[in-house]
């Protein structure tokens, strides 16, 4: 496992956008699978000690993922993601919003654009998150989004190491 992998997190309040670039010491197919398969997502997406549980996921254009982040005390924070574009193993886009347990979205939400590329056995994932409102973006950051996402990326790095036997 390589310890000096790229992790770049940039916040641009003027465009209400977050830019994330993260490199993984794993091949593209495995990283793509980790971002697009419910069983694998549930193993890394929640920052510890929280866990993730997917109620359903239909990874296709027009499909949705409905999942919860679950605290150690059992508190659930639901989110719904609608896939708007998929180009296998290179890009997918989705609309993300918090929701109640009955799948009613709490708007505004955000548009996520994931781009995957591989070079020399390392895969880079570039994520652009556009928020519909500056207030939502500022609240995300205030709630610890950057730190939580960094923890999720570390979870994924460790999982990929196990899955790829590196």
TrEMBL record:
InterPro entries: ASHA1/2-like_C, START-like_dom_sf. Transmembrane segments: none annotated. SUPFAM superfamilies: Bet v1-like. Residues 26-160 form the Activator of Hsp90 ATPase homologue 1/2-like C-terminal domain. It holds the Pfam family AHSA1. Belongs to the AHA1 family. This is SRPBCC domain-containing protein.
């Amino acid at each position: 496992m390589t310890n000096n992998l790229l992790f770049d997190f940039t916040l641009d309040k003027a465009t209400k956008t977050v830019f994330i670039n993260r490199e993984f010491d794993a091949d593209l197919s495995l990283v793509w699978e980790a971002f697009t398969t419910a069983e694998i997502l549930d193993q890394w997406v929640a920052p510890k000690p929280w866990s993730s549980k997917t109620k359903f996921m239909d990874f296709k254009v027009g499909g949705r993922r409905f999942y919860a982040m679950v605290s150690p005390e059992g508190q659930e924070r639901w989110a719904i993601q609608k896939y708007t574009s998929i180009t296998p193993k290179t890009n997918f886009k989705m609309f993300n919003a918090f929701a109640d347990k009955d799948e009613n979205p709490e708007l505004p939400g955000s548009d996520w654009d994931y781009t995957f590329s591989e070079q020399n056995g390392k895969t880079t994932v570039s994520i652009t998150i556009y928020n519909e409102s500056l207030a939502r973006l500022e609240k995300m950051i205030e709630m610890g989004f950057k730190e939580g996402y960094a923890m999720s990326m570390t979870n994924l790095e460790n999982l990929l190491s196990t899955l790829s036997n590196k």
